[in-house]
Amino acid sequence: MDMVKIARESGLAIVLDGKIGREEYTSVSGSMTALLRFGEAVRSASLRECRRFRPSSPIGDGTMILRKKLANGPQVGVGRKFKRTQIP
Questions:
Q1: Element (H, E) at 76
Q2: What is the gyration radius of the CA atoms in the chain, in angstroms?
Q3: How far apart are the first and last CA of the chain?
Q4: What is the DSSP string of 9-30?
Q5: Of 33, 1, 20, nearest to 12 (Cα)?
Q6: Do the domain assignments include residue 86?
Q7: Quick one: which of 8, 24, 45, 58 is 20 to 30 A from 73 by CA?
């Protein structure tokens, strides 16, 4: 995510203050509206990156299965079959 590019596209002014060696020092200024656009643009870019690296199977599917299993009560393994235990 290129923060300087996002800031410039949001309407913020980017000024190069100086350069020492390889390090660049910049100032960013602009209106409150531009700052709000910048914040929204960073949030959107962050969500896009998270979705791009998400595993192929969504986590939500497994939690519903787990909730259903827990709602049916604990199960005790007997060979390959399971039977429900009674909780007092």
A1: strand 75-78
A2: 26
A3: 56
A4: HTT-EEEEEEEETTEEEEEEE-
A5: 33
A6: no
A7: 58
For the chain, what is the domain count? 1
**Whole domain around residue 18: which residue ranges?**
3-70
Residue 76 lies in a domain: no
**How far is residue 39 from each of residues 7, 10, 43, 57, 69, measured CA to CA in Å?**
9, 9, 6, 30, 41
Calculate what percentage of the chain has a pLDDT beyond 90. Answer: 43
Question: How far is 43 from 23, CA to CA, in rounded Å?
Answer: 27
- Domain membership of residue 60 (yes or no) is yes
Question: Which stretches of the chain score pLDDT less than 50?
Answer: none
Confirm whether 75 is domain-assigned.
no
Smallest CA-to-CA distance from 38 within 63, 69, 4, 71 is with 4
Helix (H, G, I), strand (E, B) or coil at 36: helix
